[in-house]
Specification:
Elements lengths: L3 E3 L5 E5 L2 E7 L8 E4 L2 E12 L5 E10 L5 E7 L3 E5 L2 E11 L4 E5 L10 E2 L5 H9 L4 E9 L2 E10 L2
Antiparallel strand pairs: 1-2, 2-3, 3-8, 4-5, 4-8, 5-6, 6-7, 9-10, 9-12, 10-11, 12-13
């Protein structure tokens, strides 16, 4: 069960999949925040605040790009809704093996052990990464992006000897 605590502003902070997730009102979300739009982890690119009648803000339109697919998403959210915001984790690991059938990889952790779980590879990278691995490239580094609900290889680099 994820832990929870209060941060200095009194917001509830929860740890999900090793990532700190805080909840804040939709009208407090700003450009550059990471949140879920239409259920997808996104980087917020635009925020529009709307009013019905009177001076009070009633809703927010959030627009952003999916962190894994780069697809654009938008969602209108009532001001009373609390939005989950998080800071994704990026890490660079040495590629150990590719599971050829399903597009998952094994990577070495910093301590030299192999990661317990297989990590999916972005569909855009699968062919190029497989080709580099099969061609015998000696050292391949992969960049892994982790959000509260997903982890995926988003880039790779071949190190010259």
């Amino acid at each position: 069960m994820p832990g929870s605590d209060k941060d200095k502003e009194g917001e509830t902070v929860t740890i999900v999949n090793g990532i700190q997730v805080s909840k804040k009102p939709s009208i407090d979300v700003v450009v550059g925040d990471y949140t879920f739009i239409k259920g997808r982890p996104c980087l917020v690119a635009e925020v529009y605040l709307g009013r019905n009648r009177g001076p009070a803000i009633q809703r927010a339109l959030l627009q952003g790009k999916d962190l894994f697919t780069q697809k654009k998403y938008e969602e209108i959210i009532s001001r009373s809704v609390l939005v989950e915001c998080f800071e994704p984790i990026r890490r660079r690991c040495l590629l150990a093996n590719i599971e050829r059938d399903d597009g998952f990889v094994e990577v070495f952790e910093e301590d030299g052990s192999i990661c317990d779980s297989l990590i999916p590879v972005s569909k855009l990278l699968q062919k190029d990464l497989s080709r580099a691995f099969n061609d015998g490239s000696p050292v391949i580094w992969v960049e892994i992006l982790k959000t509260p609900d997903h982890e995926e290889v988003i880039a790779f680099e071949i190190e010259d000897e």
